[in-house]
């Protein structure tokens, strides 16, 4: 015989699983330490400076 399944419970469990996956994704993306955030900001600032330094006609401030 087939097992009887409560569809409402399955829907709720699927929603919980999806929310948990989204939370894990956000934690991985935004859960950086202060040092890691500072390093990432320093790298993007340096990349911006390097790119601006190679312009043919630099913008006047």
What do these coordinates show?
It is a single chain. This protein is mostly helical and 61 residues long. The protein has one domain (7-54). Helix content is 72%, strand content 0%. It is built from two helices and no strands. The mean pLDDT is 89. Residues 1-61 are annotated as: Disordered. InterPro entries: DUF4169.
**How many helical stretches?**
2
Structural class, by secondary structure, is: mainly alpha
Low-confidence stretches: none
**Run of helices and strands:** HH
Q: What proportion of the residues is helical, as a percent range?
A: over 70%
Radius of gyration (CA) equals 24 Å
> How many β-strand stretches?
0
Largest sheet: none
Shape: rod-shaped
N-C termini distance:
78 Å
In total, how many domains does the architecture comprise? 1
- Beta strand %: under 5%
Mean pLDDT: 89
Protein name: DUF4169 domain-containing protein
InterPro entries: DUF4169
Pfam families: DUF4169 (PF13770)
Quick take:
The chain is an all-alpha fold. It contains 2 helices and no strands.
Name its key features.
single chain, mainly alpha, 2 helices
Secondary structure blueprint with pairings:
Elements: H1 7-30, H2 34-53
Protein name: DUF4169 domain-containing protein
Pfam families: DUF4169
Biased composition (Basic and acidic residues): 14-23, 42-61
């Amino acid at each position: 015989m087939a097992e009887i399944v409560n569809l409402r419970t399955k829907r709720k469990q699927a929603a919980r699983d999806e929310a948990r996956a989204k939370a894990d994704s956000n934690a991985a993306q935004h859960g950086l330490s202060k040092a890691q955030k500072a390093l990432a900001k320093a790298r993007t600032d340096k990349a911006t400076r390097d790119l601006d330094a190679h312009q043919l006609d630099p913008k006047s401030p």
